[in-house]
Design goal:
By secondary structure, the chain is an alpha/beta fold. It contains 14 helices and 27 strands. Strands 2-1-11-10-12-13-14-15-16 form a 9-stranded mixed sheet, with helices on both faces. An 8-stranded mixed sheet has the order 7-6-5-3-4-8-9-19, with helices on both faces. Strands 17, 18, 20, 21 and 22 form a 5-stranded antiparallel sheet that branches. α3 (62-74) links the parallel β3 (53-57) and β4 (77-80).
Length: 502
């Protein structure tokens, strides 16, 4: 089955209901279904075919939703990239995925154009309001397509989304999520939400290039026939206005967003709260955040767990027992285990690596058979996270197995930043780690040893990295060390010791 059938079905059930509100604009389910048909028809006329790959880089908008479901209807594989990505981040994605088409937004075209100049421009390159002589055709050409379009009969194993994840080792890898992965996940989440009133709206602050936003906000809302209140980016004051003014709302957000809302509410308490409930993911939610938010907004937060390779697999159950500090229990259809280094199951309270198994576990990594085989064993996905369980079957994240940094809900891979720093000729050695941060969860810190006689300062290094990576990735804390970094007998830098002194 094709995921886009959910939109077709909702357009029949709720033709005049708003599927999305964005700014002063609104689009009904029927209008969205027709728009996606026109887009799909026009893209087909341009030469895009089922199973071709299309790179999409767009901020949250109604057009982005239409593009997503149009490509799904066509059976096209969508490579969804963060529109903030720059040079070397994009170059690997483009070279690895070999997209036949690109769809993006004008403010983010400069970096993409440079890459395409090196690797070759896809035959279909569209953008919303492209700059003059950009080499891109205006996205508006899609509005000329035919309103009638037959949904491609996708097989369960057909890839729908490729999402690049740094993971914990090597270069970023493209996690392939199939139609079945995403359909099963959003239907399970819909079932878990219980009886949600028809006038409930979902506050869309999560980016729709991230798996949390794709399935929990977009796909599940379309399936249930809920209105998405779309924001181009997280703005606590705008979210507060929505919470105060709407009748019933649901919020999906990362801990940093909850903290910003708490700070705003403490300074100016909300006049009323329309929140039916809220869901937290993307990083561990501090207990203090949970208690303060629930008190200020009179709404319960359900913490859950997922990753790019398996969208949502563990969550605190709705209208049942929830445990503060726990990510909950495996959702229906999923299983979870905590194992030792030899793969043996560990008893409750004993920490080990968290493994999950279920219908939403990815198909595998694009062009990476060895990494796929290492990540998935007999259907069990090795998450790389250290967890423990309790006697009731609830799970708790203890720590990360590797060095992945989660800054405000965004994954940052230290090696990627280290490689950029190493491009500076004055740098002898460097190590990037996550440092505790009250608001963001973790801040990015870099320990750097300079070559003898080097004069470069920390601000110059910071600016150099900032210009070459997405805004959330560059290190805000830079420590210039006058001694070599601590190392093991084999010469490996001991990041654990750096964390102890940071």
């Amino acid at each position: 089955m094709n995921l886009a059938q959910h939109l077709v079905d909702s357009a029949r059930k709720h033709p005049d209901k708003a599927a999305c509100r964005h700014g002063d604009g609104e689009i009904s389910f029927r209008e969205l279904d027709e728009m996606t048909n026109r887009f799909a028809s026009a893209l087909s006329d341009l030469g895009l075919k089922p199973k071709d790959r299309c790179l999409v880089m767009m901020p949250n908008s109604m057009e982005q939703i239409a593009v997503y479901y149009a490509l799904a209807k066509m059976g096209v594989v969508q490579v969804l990239a963060n529109f903030m990505y720059r040079g070397h981040e994009l170059e690997h994605i483009i070279e690895d995925s070999q997209p036949k088409a690109f769809i993006g937004a004008e403010p983010y075209l400069d970096e993409v154009r440079k890459i395409f100049a090196k690797t070759g421009m896809p035959p279909i390159a569209l953008a919303k309001n492209p700059s003059k002589d950009s080499g891109f055709t205006d996205l508006s050409v899609l509005s000329t397509g035919n309103v009638d379009f037959t949904v491609y009969p996708a097989d369960d194993d057909d890839t729908l989304n490729i999402l690049y994840t740094s993971g914990t080792t090597g270069v970023s890898k493209g996690a392939m999520l199939t139609h079945k992965n995403l359909i099963s996940n959003c239907r399970t989440l819909a079932m878990m939400r219980g009886n949600i009133e028809n006038d409930t709206a979902v506050i869309g602050v999560l980016p729709l290039f991230h798996v949390f936003g794709i399935n929990s906000v977009l796909n599940t809302s379309i399936y249930l026939g809920l209105t998405i209140l779309m924001l181009p980016q997280f703005d606590p004051e705008q979210v507060m206005d929505i919470i105060e003014q709407e009748e019933r709302t649901i919020l999906f957000a990362v801990p940093t967003m909850y903290n910003r809302l708490i700070q705003l509410a403490e300074a100016k308490p909300p006049k009323r709260s329309s929140l039916k409930f809220a869901v937290s993911g993307g990083a561990s939610l501090p207990e203090e955040f949970l208690h303060r938010f629930e008190t200020l907004f009179h709404a319960k937060i359900y913490e859950g767990y997922g990753l790019t390779e398996a969208p949502v697999c563990i969550e605190n159950p709705y209208n049942q027992t929830t445990k503060v500090g726990s990510i909950g229990v495996p959702i229906p259809g999923f299983s979870a285990r905590v194992v030792d280094a030899d793969g043996n199951d560990l008893p409750p309270s004993k920490p080990g690596e968290l493994l999950v198994k279920g219908p939403a576990v990815m198909k595998g990594y694009l062009n990476c058979p060895d990494e796929t085989a290492e990540a998935i064993t007999d259907g069990w996905l090795h998450t790389g996270d250290i967890a423990r369980s309790d006697d009731d079957g609830y799970f708790y994240i203890v720590d990360r197995k590797k060095d992945l940094i989660i800054r405000g809900g965004y994954n940052v891979y230290p090696r990627e930043i280290e490689e950029v720093i190493y491009q500076l000729p004055d740098v002898l050695e460097t190590a990037v780690i996550g440092m505790p941060h009250k608001d963001l969860g973790e801040e990015i810190g870099a320990f750097i040893v300079l070559k003898e006689g080097a004069k470069i300062d920390s601000e110059t290094i910071k600016l150099y990295v900032k210009e070459r990576v997405a805004p959330y990735k560059y290190p805000r804390i830079i420590t210039i060390c006058d001694q070599p970094l601590p190392k093991s007998g084999s010469g490996k830098i001991l990041k654990k010791e750096l964390r102890n002194v940071s």
